[in-house]
Design goal:
Layout lengths: L17 E7 L2 E7 L4 E6 L4 E10 L2 E8 L10 E10 L2 E11 L2 E4 L10 E5 L1
Antiparallel strand pairs: 1-2, 1-9, 2-3, 3-4, 4-5, 5-6, 6-7, 7-8, 7-9
Length: 122
């Protein structure tokens, strides 16, 4: 189940926004925010789109992603949580974790300083 932390529409700078992070030439990841605390997440390298929910407080964005895109694992659904810091028109990923046995376990992901989402619409 996707959890959403309280948020009012009028102070949400993400609503209707599309944010792009360049992965390689001609390959961009994207986050497309909607006004119902939902987000569509596109992973260019895997060529998949997943859905999730988001919450936003002060300068911190939390995205909880539901991933059921891997048919090779028997339809298992995985949940991931990524935290970002918002600075102007940029989102900087700072932490990622996976839901394992009911607990969020930090992943050993080191984000490249060049992997930054930039707001292009919204």
């Amino acid at each position: 189940m996707l959890a959403v932390i309280g948020m009012t529409k009028f102070n949400d700078p993400l609503i209707s926004g599309i944010w792009i992070a360049k992965v390689a030439n001609g390959c961009n990841d994207s986050l497309k925010f909607q006004n119902n605390h939902r987000v569509k997440i596109y992973d260019c390298e895997a060529s998949i789109t997943t859905v999730g929910s988001y919450s936003f407080s002060k300068d911190t964005l939390v995205v909880i992603e539901r991933d059921d895109s891997h048919s090779e694992d028997g339809g298992k659904i995985s949940y991931f949580k990524t935290k970002y810091i918002l600075k102007n028109i940029y989102l900087y990923p700072i932490n990622s974790s996976q839901l394992t046995n009911g607990n969020w376990v930090d992943l050993k992901v080191k984000f490249s300083k060049t992997y930054v989402y930039k707001k292009i619409r919204g």
